[in-house]
Amino acid sequence: MRGVPSESTHHIGGPLTTAIGLALTAGYVDAFVYRNVFPVFVANMSGNLVRTGMSIGDLDLHAVFASLLAIAAFAVGVSVATTMVDRQVGRGQPLRPEPLARLEVVLLVLVSAIALRPAASFSDRLTPTKVVVVALASAAMGVQAIGLRKVGQVAVSTTYGTGAIVRLGEKLSLALRRSPHAHTIGRRHSVRVLATVLASYVAGAALASALPDRRWLLAAAPSLMLVVAHWLHDDPEPALV
Question: pTM here?
Answer without folding.
Answer: 0.85
